[in-house]
Predict the structure.
Amino acid sequence: MQDVKPGGSFLLNCQWSPEELDQHLPASMKSYIAKNNIKFYIVDAINKAREIGMGKRTNTILQSGFFKLANIIPIDDAVQYMKEAAKKSYGRKGEEIVQMNYKAIDAGVDALVEVNVPASWADAVDAPVEKHYEGSEQMIDFVKNVLEPISEQKGNKLPVSTFEHSADGAFPMGVSAYEKRGVAVDVPEWIPENCIQCAQCSFVCPHATIRAYAADAEEMKNAPAAMKGKKMIGKGCEDYTFVMQVDPLDCMGCGLCANICPAPNKALVMKPLDSQMDQQAAFDYAVKHISEKDTGLSVETVKGSQFKQPLLEFSGACAGCVETAYARLITQLFGDRMSIANATGCSSIWGGSAPAIPYTTNKDGRGPSWANSLFEDNAEFGLGIAVATRQLRERLAAKVEKVMEKAEGALKEACQTYLDTQTNSAASRKATDALVPELEKAAANGCELSKEILKDKDFLAKRSVWIFGGDGWAYDIGYGGVDHVLASGEDVNIMVFDTEVYSNTGGQASKASQIGQVAQFAASGKAIKKKDLAAISMSYGYIYVAQIGMGANYQQTVRALVEAENYHGPSLVIGYAPCEMHGIKGGMGNSQLEIKAAVEAGYWHLFRYDPRLKAEGKNPFQLDSKEPKGDYEEFIKREVRYTSLSRSFPEKAPAMYSLAAEEAKKKYNRLTKRASENWD
Amino acid sequence: MQDVKPGGSFLLNCQWSPEELDQHLPASMKSYIAKNNIKFYIVDAINKAREIGMGKRTNTILQSGFFKLANIIPIDDAVQYMKEAAKKSYGRKGEEIVQMNYKAIDAGVDALVEVNVPASWADAVDAPVEKHYEGSEQMIDFVKNVLEPISEQKGNKLPVSTFEHSADGAFPMGVSAYEKRGVAVDVPEWIPENCIQCAQCSFVCPHATIRAYAADAEEMKNAPAAMKGKKMIGKGCEDYTFVMQVDPLDCMGCGLCANICPAPNKALVMKPLDSQMDQQAAFDYAVKHISEKDTGLSVETVKGSQFKQPLLEFSGACAGCVETAYARLITQLFGDRMSIANATGCSSIWGGSAPAIPYTTNKDGRGPSWANSLFEDNAEFGLGIAVATRQLRERLAAKVEKVMEKAEGALKEACQTYLDTQTNSAASRKATDALVPELEKAAANGCELSKEILKDKDFLAKRSVWIFGGDGWAYDIGYGGVDHVLASGEDVNIMVFDTEVYSNTGGQASKASQIGQVAQFAASGKAIKKKDLAAISMSYGYIYVAQIGMGANYQQTVRALVEAENYHGPSLVIGYAPCEMHGIKGGMGNSQLEIKAAVEAGYWHLFRYDPRLKAEGKNPFQLDSKEPKGDYEEFIKREVRYTSLSRSFPEKAPAMYSLAAEEAKKKYNRLTKRASENWD
């Protein structure tokens, strides 16, 4: 409030009535308004925008509200100028969108409500709130002295000495859990009686704010009353309660979970944030107190993976983001032993937005190590991590062998088991956990070699090296490196979040953009077809390659990621990721359904190429998506990035659309041919 | 001589007897030797090396000669050390090579001849030689003031001001013609009576030192007596004399021409340089006075292309180089209108070795413009040239259209013809030649637009933009750019000289190296297969792609280059180029025959992918090489880069060789499949 001058005007966008304000506004705000004679207005732009059909876009309403109050130019002139600007900006996106903007401009003028400020506000005083912090001393120090000042936009007042003890640029992990932004208007409410326990809601959640738990009786007994649950289905799970727990304050309110819920009577409905606040304590309890159970479900399944703690949570990604859903899943599968080299782009922003790092650790303190190098050298950066990791682990294996030579009994056995499983993703952790205490005993008895091994014990268990980036990086700027690293034969995993456009960089066309797509540098529609990164990479023959689309086939997504990871060689997984930039009908709450539609229309294809199958005399290429049954052109006309072409270039668009459809058909034919013929 | 101190020793490697020295040595040398009491020795390391079987490698003989004369350590010890070193260096290349080196070491000791220096040498005086320079004033200035001082190793004494008028780094073209190095031991002698007039000798010549001419009666009449010729065959050529003219002083003596000569009785035999010196005047006459005739032969054929002036000549490339044969041919086909962006590597060294630039111009002053940017951005550099060229030409076309609007008669017609053929490689020059004088007339009559057009008249005729580089550039370091530029759809032509190794950079393995190949960074044989750059590029569908191998199919080489150039889009031509680094049996005089053997063994494949064929409903992919009839493993065992593996890693080599053979077979199967099935 302190930025409003005495006698000034203040407009608040909220869903409250004037009468409800007294209850919701903090005392400091109320007293500032009353004491400084502030003219106070409210507008419910949230419901207004929904009503008009603009979804979450409230900015136009608020802009015209600003002009109404500021009165810099006569409001009628301002409205006219704004409408002319809207026509110019959105004309090529269609008349419907122009009309919506007109309505929003009018609404900003008409829907303002002046608040009669009660004189009593001047004396308002809040009860003192004692802040309670949980976590390590270091973390609490960081939250108090870095996160909070920056969140309050006071970061530029921090002295350099604040960062003295992290001079290497390292940030603590899991900081995003301390933000509790509460930015969603609506959050999901879980209705246990309708739930079929598929865990798909949590599978697609971009922010890890809805999570599956198998709680035992004791855990349920101690849980807050608000925690809901139902008897868990599945063999061996009879004694557990299935909990699908929502995290209201971290949820972005995208609605993906509710939209994709396959339960006949929908087990999730979106409700106003306020109404779900009792779930916060339940969520906090679940995170802290409900342990991971052996449910008998393989972690390498859609459902099984969702009982694993996500090690990417509450990132700053857009509501409805698909990239983070892929990344979150990867952390559930491999996060406790992975390193990530991240290219510049969206994934480096949501992955490393200082100070609120969203990558986190599990109860054992294990989580992904993460770093971002340059746009153009990220694959090489990851290769360096992989080579260093391999060297370190080979050296450790040699030392364990030497220890084993002179060892007997339990130590000898632990060494042997360790060496037998050293490169086995599934078994290596267990063998390491058995080896370490034996080495500790030996070290205590003076074994110098054991001491040396223990110094690098974090590298004993099999590591998983991942290289993350978007299409701008993988297809264009960093492609020289992507190709070189994949060709190297080293055991690395490359995950490409393919939005078919430079998203974070500003919406420019990339080589991943498709024919007819409108983007920066492709205002008249991209004329040439999408680069076939998968086909190019398959030409090597020893690279594991998969194309996935989460919303189209959850199981194929998990399978591809698991295969990529356990392949002892280079792997490339290309995940289709619809993006805010695409202008999907209904917004990003439909992003996962859009992937499904894309695959059904033959716009995107799912397949896996596993070089290991060659040794079995099989075709390494497997096509996972069915023959397209939808219409390609109909599909692309669901997205503004395509429809805008027919506004700007109506004479050119139809030919481009049909060329795109034709190329897609050819591509599908090529894929089916390859699946049936074995080109290797 | 001035570096030899009075009383010092001097060893000269020459094929002369002591008695012949008086006649061959310059007076300044003779008098210095006599006046300063120099101990003078000669050795015929050239014939000695041949005798031993070391071909042109005289260095070992000369090294042991040095130790014999220098007497720094007792010669017996020196010999022993040298032999030990030879064993160590060449052991892995085979016992045969070790034995050769032993013989060479012994020869250096035994074959020295001390020369009895006649007292009369002290007073020796040469008749003064007046140097005669031909060329533009600027060129003569450059030759006298830059080329000659640098050739005499006095380049570091040149003042900066020498380069004042070429501050942008530009060098004059065609300087290499002034070097006349005379470095060949043997040069070809042409035997007209045996010649079948196929012009293949000139087609494969790396240094453009054997050239085909169609001379008319007048030209023959005025020619030096030494010029040979025979009645030309071919319709319409009855009145011409066919001349295959050798250039002794620029020839490197590789013997390629003689080796590949298909005439039953060989029309070329290698003879000592001295014996062929009368041909120099004939060559100089031919270059200067024999015009290019309309022989009725298409330039787009093997034979026809050889009557065109090479615009790359006398480069510093190794004897027997295949890269320069490709490049020379390209200049014959398109050189008078081409720009070359050259990557760092061999081709930037032989292409731009200051001061003796080998790219030259024709009688109209037209030749390739050439520049070298960085290793990693050369494709982008070429793209910039292409885009700038296209923009300039589009602007010119717009101006010509405007001129035409108001024009009448001949000018109007010339404009129309020009516009009709603006992007036609074959017709654009002719139309331009007709247009320019008309524009000049118009300009003289005050037409400002015509004046503007004439300012950029060099860009009126269709240009040809080429991007040159080796495999280190195209497959590795510059590949990100190669991919991006090819994907751009712009009209550029990329020529890759594929030696399968970093040649100039030092013999490191590249992604173009094959399984089992020994190279730097691949001492135990490259374990993974060669990157399939052609397949990768074909995945785009709109890139013209060809794989060529000159010695295996001359006609396919020409056809691919012509198609690549006249395709209005991106083109990639990958030319197989055996290299000094390969250790080919018999040396680089067999480089072209090695290509033939490579194709016959299924080591290399010839094909073309022309996107234009799709519009005709045809398969764009055409396989040009026949089913391999040779044995892959037998083939690779002809080259030291492969055989050295079995010396160093005898237990590992057989498996690698057969894996390589297996992958080659799979590749051939894939190619035949593609040729018969149409994968697009």
In short: Chain B touches chain A through 30 residues (CB under 8 Å). The radius of gyration of chain B is 27 Å. The first strand of chain B starts at residue 9 and ends at 13. Residues 467 and 494 of chain B are 5 Å apart (CA to CA).
